[in-house]
Automatic annotation (TrEMBL):
Example of a GO biological process term: chlorophyll metabolic process
Membrane-traversing stretches: 312-331
Protein name from the UniProt record: Alpha beta hydrolase
One Gene Ontology MF term: chlorophyllase activity
Amino acid sequence: MPVVCARELGFTWSPLWSSLRCHRLSSRAGTRAATEQSVQLGSLPRLCVRPGFWVGHGLQGKPCRRKRSRTAALRLVQAAASEPPLRPAPSSEQGVVDAAPSSTSVEGVTRIRRHYETFWWRCRLTNETYRINYRVEETLNTRAPLFHVLLIHGFGANLLHFRKNQPVLAQEGHRVFALDLLGFGASDKPCLSSAKRRPDGMPSGSRDGYSLELWRDLCIDFIHEMDRCYADTPHRWVICGNSIGGLVALMTGVALQDQMVIEPAGRNTDAAPAPTEATESRRDRLAGLVLLNCAGGLTGVRYSELSPLGAALWWLFTAIFFRSPIVYWLFERIRRPASLRNTLRQIYRNPEAINEDLIEILREPAHDEGARDVFASVLRGDAGPTPRELLKQLSPKKRVLVLWGRDDPWTPFDRGIYPGIAFSEWVSEPTQMRLVCIENCGHCPHDDSPERVNTEVCAFLKELWHLERCDDATEPSNDVTSPHNNNDNAPRDTH
């Protein structure tokens, strides 16, 4: 377990799952006995704190630089007591949802809450259950939410990256979900690396370890579980993602576009009648997509795009670099506050957006156990499908909003292999996509220019809702019990 140092108190805190012990390191003759303070930390064993001592596991023989007062010791106890007790994962059923308290910072009590609700996800790849952190916001009023909106963050980020967008969308009458993908934020960070190889010696594909397919499956299962949790008011989904989160959103949308949801007609009224078979309608589960500077792949290299020699050289490079201590050294440097700030200055154009809150949001999860292994696994992973392939698979009925920061150095708007300007050329029907280039904005437009993004997304959602209501007025009856209208494959959504 990582050891967190509280330098200002002269203590080291090691959050062990088993015993927590205190070790007296100064046994000078004549030293007066220190007063021992004990507290009970939730479900954890007793913790003893003594002034002038180091608190931790396996730290015998490391002297404390200077003695601290009893008050300082009690401060450490209070900070440690605020750490939420860990909850055991359920042993069988997937989809158990519960609430989780806020967490503490690696150097004291955090100013920003990390933990929200918990979705226990059964991963198909490992057949293990993992903790997925998510947050839901909605406006409490007499009307049912218009859409369910899912926000998917990019690489190295978490659900708090949408802190400037989620409340605004909720105020518009939508139920808005944001989740931490497996391996990021406050979600679990298991080691999913595998030694599987294809016959030609190359990696076995994107299903091995952390991948876009893994996160797509997570989002699909999460959507199904939220539909079960809110079964009294079924809704269609709008999926929004930034960077690789945009690619995950696109993959999830393609997978959900043929799935149907049964919803009561007239649910947007203040006093909607109780749904009956005559008032129910069948709709596609997916209403639309929002892509924010969508990435071209999980990594920048695809073996299918390389020559045999290039593929062999790239495999050798990843085997040497990404499976050695070098990648861990790189991770240690990247997660430093100064390095994070320098990186953000490259991809942000609004200096005011790069504040201490953003640094803390990105830095804290990088200190979780398993974070550096996730980093290494993603770097040596498969790039996954291309945006061109996915957009060509998307139904021409599905509306897509693409927002792109023009000054993005990582996924440029008008150059590169998968530039933003080319997205409108890859859809089946040009009218189904709206492409908006945001000036003076970088790789994360939702955080770099939140006012513009919120305006565009809210207008897009209103347009989708208007089209859906127009369809209700023009379509014939969709009574699913009628013997003349029981073709599940017939298109129901004409927008």
